[in-house]
Amino acid sequence: MIDVALVRRVPIFTDFSDEEVAAICSTVTERQYGRHEFIVRESDSGDVFYLIARGSVAVCHTAPDGHETILSILKEGDFFGEMAMFDSSLRSASIKTLTEVDVGLIQQDTFLAMLEQHPRFARQFVVVLAERLRVANRLVATTTSQDARARVASLLLYLAERFGEPIDNGTRITLRLTHQEMANMIGTTRETVNRALNRFWDEHLVDRRSPLLVLTDLAGLRALL
User: Fold this and answer.
1) Of 131, 121, 53, 138, nearest to 85 (Cα)?
2) In the chain, where does DSSP find H-type helix?
3) What is the spatial distance between Cα 171 and Cα 123, in angstroms, rounded to a whole number?
4) Where do you find CATH 2.60.120.10 in the chain?
5) Which of 142, 152, 140 shows the shortest CA–CA distance to 195?
6) Which letter does DSSP use for residue 55 in this model?
C-alpha cells in the first residue's frame, strides 16, 4: 500500500482526515520505473490518475519532426493524468522519468467518486490546476520573449524554486538534468545552454564543480531577466 504520509503531502489531499487518507491508500496500486522510461505516451488512451511517490518526471510533447519539448517537471507529491479522468480522452502529453520513480495509480471510477464525495477535494484540485497553468504560462512567456541567455537564467530560477535546497555557498538544484533536457524546456539548443552556463560560471552566478548545479547569486540571475 502507498505511504499514508506521501498521500497527505499531495496538496489535493491535505484536508482529508486520517481515516479518509487510509481509505484512499487502500485503493491505490504501486508501480516502479527506472530512469528515462515512459510511464504514459502521448495519444495513448488512459483511465488512470497517477501520484508521484518518489522521483521526478518530465511532461513532454514530441513534434512530428521528432523534436521533444519538455512542458514541465513534476516531483514527489505531484500528480498527473487528471485530464483523461473527465472524458476518457487520449493522453495530451507523454510522461518520461528523469530519475527512478515510484507512482501510485488510482482508477478513474475511484477518482470521480472522490470528487463527488469530497467537495473540498474538488476545490483544492482546481486550485492546484490553476497554479500549474500560471507556471506554464510563465514558462511559455520565457521561451518567446527573452534572449537565450535570459531563458537559461529563467530556467535556473524555476528549478531553484522547485528543486532548490540552501547550502553554504548558495542554492543547490537537487534534480540533475542534461543540457539537452534543459534546452528542451526553453526552446533552444544544448550548445546554447552549455555556453550560457559557462558564462554564468565565469561571472560567479553558478558553481559547476559538483554533479549538482549550485546557484551562487540568485539576484544576479534575476537581473538578467
Assistant:
1) 121
2) 4-9, 18-27, 84-87, 108-117, 119-145, 148-163, 179-186, 190-202, 218-222
3) 33
4) 4-141
5) 152
6) S
**Which one-letter amino acid corresponds to residue 121?**
F
What cell was used for 192?
A: 546554447
| Whole-number pLDDT of residue 52 | 92
Radius of gyration of the chain (CA): 19
pLDDT of residue 143: 66
HSE-up (13 A, CA, CB side) for residue 91: 22
CATH superfamily name and code, 4-141: Jelly Rolls (2.60.120.10)
pLDDT of residue 223: 95
Round to whole Å and give the CA distance between 5 and 19: 13
Greatest distance between any 2 Cα atoms in the chain: 56
Cα(159)–Cα(212) distance, integer angstroms: 12
Strand partners for 49: 106
pLDDT, residue 2, reads 73
- Mean pLDDT in order along the chain per 10 residues (225 residues): 75 79 85 94 87 93 88 90 78 93 91 83 83 77 76 93 95 96 92 96 96 96 93
| CATH 1.10.10.10 holds for 146-222 | yes
Please enumerate in sequence order all residues whose Cβ is within 8 A of that of 219, keeping only pairs 6 or more positions apart, or say none.
Answer: none
Q: Which residues contact 211 (CB under 8 A, 6 or more apart)?
A: 176
Q: Where in the chain is the domain with CATH 1.10.10.10?
A: 146-222
pLDDT reported for residue 1? 63
Its pTM stands at: 0.85
